[in-house]
């Protein structure tokens, strides 16, 4: 690989790889964003479901506790024991010892009288005291449900005949409450928040903790700690405003599956990038050489000033293929250009022929009245008078003398005959003048035909020494009648000693003719307007160039349309749009330049044509 | 000036009233006034009020008015004990009229005697209430004694042709009192109960007990229950097939509450009789009977006749107890409870509403009624307790 090829490869990589890397990173970030969002939503939903299920399970536990208490408080043995004051000691202890709070077997169940005095309990060591205000509330038939310092206290009124006659009291210490609320959930970490003191108290699967206790601070995995990221959701246990549970998921565990996916994604993208780099390397390596070879061929062709370069169809198959395609394209382009030029020449010929015929027509038009005038002259009054005179003389040939001398009419005949020489002379002069006019017209026609013959472009380009001033005058000659008829003022400023240069004068004549015709038509559009109709033509030259400029006062061109006027097929006059395109083709084919300028509509236009006379066209004076 | 004068007058009257209240002889009432046997408590209250009104109209006792102070124990012994303690702290309190239930009265026994409270019992049949092993015994009863009631009920059911009674008893001191009395009475007749079935206060269904009794061959149930559990018994009986039902001969506890109101739709199909003492429809003293009915109807707007006197035994018993207490106070010439207790034991003769007490009490016998005062009764279709004859029991 040479340095050019290497540079090409490096350049391609520098262009593509950062963009590809950027796109891959964006895809990764977008995928990560959407995947994480979806995952977080899914995890949140899962956590919400788990939290809801956990809260419902805990509510069930608490409901079960409440239900158990209500069943006991309605138990007729317990009710009866409140009444059977003297003998209850015989059966109540056994009954109470058999009582256990579901899921909290060590919870205290105690029977109290209507003033909260303990009657019996399921444990021997308990001694329950309830504040009088709370007793009053219970005696009103209300359950007492309170959490104090992590302990749960529930009291149920024992109602008999619609009156509260005693109290059944549950006391669950922290460990009992912990057991009661212990929900086995492998998915989430459950924290129970007790709002009894306004502080958060929570259980982390293995217990209920009070924030004031030290173990909460030493738990490395507690929700909210710095060491582990958690997502949490809190919900009040339905029906128990004192209890709020907070379920937590470790984000690591929740997102671990995603991390595997993300790692796979990153590796896949890195492999993509690697594949892209290798692809660019090899593809660039494969294409760079043919392309560079081809570019080199083009460069050489341009250095040889070949407008239609023919590239050697050699080298690698790719280069040869490109050269073949290029050569074919250039060949077709050249063929098309020549066809266009032929079309333009044909068009020019047609225009010239039309102009010649028009000029010939213009010249022939006055011949007919002239001939009529000659005929009328030749059939004029002199002949009639002579025949009348001859008739009168024949009538009076027998008395000619008398007739001539005495008859009034005879006297006039004599006078008439005497005036005949002068009359014939006058007639002859008039005829002579008419014939001269006819001769002039015929000469003009001959001149036009001659010019047409002289400047009619042939099929083959023939470069000869050419004076541009002659061509301008000749072109104006073609248009003379048209200018006179349209009352267009022609002003020519043709410099003396303009250099000759080698060019196909017939085709240049066609160009000048086309440009003047274009100005003429631009003015014709305005012929009904009371504006000045003028065409100014000047020639110019320098040491290196020769050219001419045609300025008209015609309709002008929109500045934005100027770039379009030389394009093939562009026309706003209903023509084929060939003439100006041909002009440009011809001028540029002869290394010249053509430009058209206008300040806008109704401001006229200026077309300037300039040819180099150094190097390309041989100068001859 | 005028306003100041009025204030002075009002204050003087209040002071005089307060002074009069402080001189009144207080009789306490510790009864179930609002719970399952509230009608019994209310009946006792009305009987005591009528008697006190009558005494006070007659000039009172020892020149002082009698004043009734009520406390509601709702059938709950704990409340009853607290009530007795409360009464014990009252100055000029001479006695407490207790009422329903035996368990309450039995729970109060120790404190009654500790505080030397005269406890007048118009409605609680437990034998141990009187046989309480306290000397002196401060409890005096004008009511049924289970010992007698058991014998009476057994006697009647046998006379009516039933020979296989089953006992359905509440698991309280009262139930146990009746178990003792009834088994003794049956034994004396050479009969053993086909079964003894217990239930608790607050029970909601007694079908198992009834069916067990039926299956054991019982031809009648001897029921010892208060009104709420009596309702359950009737409801349970009613829910059984006719062939599975048993006639019920009940102690009088069921009449202490709104038993009839709660069972009237089922009572037509069930044979139910129960123990009563006094009936205003078969008085022993027509003059006094009429006088009490009149006073009752005058005082209580919900009553127009004897038919409107609910739980009549409670009213009659309380009425007589207040007069017996008054007689003892007059005899003692003091409201000192020790003196009055002795005086009660020494009343020779008193013609009361329920009976002529000759004597009502003695140092060895504080039950004023005996089996001769008992009768069987039933509810008529209006819920009025009416005596029945033996033929109606068959």
Features:
heterodimer, A: 621 residues, alpha+beta, five-stranded antiparallel β-sheet, 18 strands, 54% helix, elongated, B: 394 residues, alpha/beta, Rossmann fold, 2 domains, 14 strands
Outline of the structure:
Chain A has 621 residues and is α+β, with helices and mostly antiparallel strands. Chain A has 15 helices and 18 strands. In chain A, 54% of the residues lie in helices and 17% in strands.
The CATH homologous superfamily of the largest domain in chain B is termed Response regulator
Mean pLDDT, all residues of chain A: 79
**Could you name the CATH topology of the largest domain in chain A?**
Beta-Lactamase
Largest β sheet strand count, sense and barrel closure of chain B: 7 strands, mixed
How far apart the termini of chain A lie comes to: 57 Å
Mean pLDDT of chain B: 92
Give start-end ranges of low-pLDDT stretches of chain A: 197-226
Write the CATH architecture name of the largest domain in chain A: 2-Layer Sandwich
CATH first level of the largest domain in chain B = Alpha Beta
Assigned CATH superfamily of the largest domain in chain A: PAS domain
| C-alpha-based Rg of chain B, rounded | 22 Å
Strand content of chain B: 15-25%
Structural class of chain A comes to: alpha+beta
The largest sheet of chain A, given as strand count, sense and whether it forms a barrel, is:
5 strands, antiparallel
Question: Which protein chains make the most extensive interface, counting residues with beta carbons within 8 Å of the other chain's beta carbons?
Answer: A-B, 21 and 27 residues
CATH architecture assignment of the largest domain in chain B: 3-Layer(aba) Sandwich
CATH first level of the largest domain in chain A: Alpha Beta
Taken as a percent bin, the fraction of beta residues of chain A is: 15-25%
Q: What is the element string of chain B, with H for helices and E for strands?
A: HEHEHEHEHEHEHEHEHEHEHHHEEEEH
Instruction: Identify the strand order in the major beta sheet of chain B.
Output: 7-6-8-9-10-13-14
The total tally of domains of chain A equals: 3
């Amino acid at each position: 690989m040479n340095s050019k090829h290497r540079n090409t490869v490096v350049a391609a990589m520098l262009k593509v790889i950062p963009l590809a890397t950027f796109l891959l990173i964006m895809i990764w970030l977008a995928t990560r964003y959407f995947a994480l969002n979806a995952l977080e939503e899914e995890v949140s939903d899962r956590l919400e479901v788990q939290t809801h299920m956990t809260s419902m399970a805990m509510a069930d536990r608490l409901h079960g506790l409440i239900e158990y208490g209500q069943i006991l408080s309605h138990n007729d043995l317990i009710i009866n024991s409140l009444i059977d004051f003297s003998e209850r000691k015989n059966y109540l202890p056994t009954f109470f010892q058999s009582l256990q709070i579901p899921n909290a077997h060590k919870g205290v169940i105690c029977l109290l009288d209507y003033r909260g005095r303990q009657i019996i309990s399921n444990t021997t060591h308990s001694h329950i005291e309830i504040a009088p205000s709370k007793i009053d509330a219970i005696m009103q038939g209300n359950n007492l449900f309170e959490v104090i310092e992590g302990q749960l206290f529930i009291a149920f009124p024992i109602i008999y005949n619609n009156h509260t006659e005693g109290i059944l009291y549950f006391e669950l210490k922290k460990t009992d409450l912990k057991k009661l609320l212990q929900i086995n959930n492998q998915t989430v970490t459950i924290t129970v928040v007790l709002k009894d003191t306004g502080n958060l108290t929570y259980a982390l699967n293995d217990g209920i903790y009070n924030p004031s206790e030290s173990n909460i601070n030493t738990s490395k995995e507690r929700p909210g700690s710095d060491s582990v990221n958690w997502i949490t959701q809190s919900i009040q246990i339905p029906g128990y405003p004192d209890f709020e549970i907070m379920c937590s998921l470790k984000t690591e565990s929740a997102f671990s599956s995603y991390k595997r996916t993300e790692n796979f994604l990153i590796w896949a993208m890195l492999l993509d990038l690697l594949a892209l780099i290798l692809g660019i390397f090899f593809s660039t390596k494969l294409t760079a050489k043919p392309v560079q070879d081809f570019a080199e061929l083009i460069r050489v062709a341009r250095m040889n000033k070949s407008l239609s370069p023919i590239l050697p169809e050699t080298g690698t198959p790719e280069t040869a293929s490109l050269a073949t395609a290029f050569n074919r394209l250039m060949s077709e382009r050249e063929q098309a250009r020549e066809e266009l030029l032929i079309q333009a020449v044909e068009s020019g010929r047609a225009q010239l022929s039309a102009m010649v015929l028009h000029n010939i027509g213009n010249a022939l038009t006055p011949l007919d009245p002239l001939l009529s005038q000659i005929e009328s002259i030749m059939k004029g009054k002199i002949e009639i008078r002579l025949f009348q005179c001859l008739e009168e003389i024949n009538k009076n040939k027998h008395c000619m003398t008398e007739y001539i001398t005495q008859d009034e009419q005879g006297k006039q005949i004599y006078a008439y005959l005497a005036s005949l020489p002068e009359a014939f002379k006058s007639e002859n002069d008039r005829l002579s003048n008419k014939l001269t006019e006819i001769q002039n017209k015929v000469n003009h026609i001959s001149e036009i035909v001659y010019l047409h013959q002289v400047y009619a472009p042939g099929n083959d380009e023939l470069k000869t020494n050419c004076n541009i001033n002659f061509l301008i005058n000749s072109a104006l000659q073609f248009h003379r009648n048209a200018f006179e008829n349209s009352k267009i003022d022609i002003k020519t400023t043709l410099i003396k000693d303009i250099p000759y240069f080698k060019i196909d004068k017939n085709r240049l004549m066609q160009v000048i003719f086309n440009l003047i015709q274009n100005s003429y038509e631009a003015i014709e559009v305005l012929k009904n307007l009371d504006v000045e109709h003028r065409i100014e033509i000047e020639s110019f030259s320098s040491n290196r160039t020769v050219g001419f400029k045609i300025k008209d006062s015609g309709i002008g061109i929109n500045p934005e349309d100027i770039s379009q006027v030389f394009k093939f097929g562009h026309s706003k006059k209903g023509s084929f749009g060939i003439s100006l395109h041909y002009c440009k083709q011809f001028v540029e084919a002869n290394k010249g330049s053509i430009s058209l300028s206008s300040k806008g509509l109704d401001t006229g236009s200026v077309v300037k044509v300039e040819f180099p006379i150094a190097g390309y066209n041989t100068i001859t004076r | 000036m005028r306003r100041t004068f009025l204030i002075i007058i009002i204050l003087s009257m209040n002071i005089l009233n307060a002074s009069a209240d402080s001189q009144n002889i207080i009789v306490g009432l510790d009864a179930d006034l609002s719970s399952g046997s509230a009608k019994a408590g209310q009946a006792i209250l009305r009987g005591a009020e009528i008697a006190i009104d009558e005494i006070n109209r007659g000039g009172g006792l020892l020149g002082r008015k009698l004043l009734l102070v009520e406390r509601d124990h709702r059938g709950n012994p704990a409340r009853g004990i607290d009530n007795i303690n409360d009464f014990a702290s009252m100055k000029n309190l001479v006695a407490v009229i207790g009422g329903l239930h035996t368990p309450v009265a039995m729970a109060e026994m120790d404190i009654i005697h500790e505080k030397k409270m005269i406890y007048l019992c118009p409605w609680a049949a437990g034998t141990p209430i009187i046989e309480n092993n306290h000397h002196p015994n401060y409890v005096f009863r004008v009511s049924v004694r289970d010992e007698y009631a058991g014998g009476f009920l057994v006697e009647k059911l046998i006379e009516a042709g039933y020979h296989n009674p089953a006992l359905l008893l509440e698991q309280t001191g009262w139930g146990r009192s009746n178990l003792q009395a009834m088994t003794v009475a049956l034994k004396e007749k050479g009969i053993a109960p086909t079964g003894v079935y217990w239930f608790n206060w607050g029970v909601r269904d007694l079908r198992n007990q009834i069916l067990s009794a039926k299956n054991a061959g019982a031809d009648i149930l001897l029921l010892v229950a208060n009104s709420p559990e009596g309702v359950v018994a009737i409801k349970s009986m009613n829910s059984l097939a006719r062939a599975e039902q048993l006639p019920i001969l009940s102690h009088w506890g069921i009449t202490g509450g709104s038993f009839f109101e709660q069972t009237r739709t089922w009572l037509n199909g069930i044979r139910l009789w129960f123990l009563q003492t006094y009936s205003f429809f078969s008085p022993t003293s027509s003059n006094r009977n009429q006088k009490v009915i009149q006073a009752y109807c005058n005082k209580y707007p919900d009553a127009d006749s004897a038919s409107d006197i609910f739980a009549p035994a409670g009213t009659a018993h309380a009425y007589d107890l207040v007069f017996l207490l008054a007689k003892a106070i007059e005899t003692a010439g003091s409201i000192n409870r020790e003196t009055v207790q002795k005086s009660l034991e020494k009343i020779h003769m008193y013609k009361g509403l329920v009976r002529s007490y000759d004597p009502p009490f003695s140092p060895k016998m504080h039950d004023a009624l005996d089996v001769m005062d008992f009768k069987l009764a039933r509810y008529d279709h209006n819920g009025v307790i009416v005596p029945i004859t033996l033929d109606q029991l068959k």
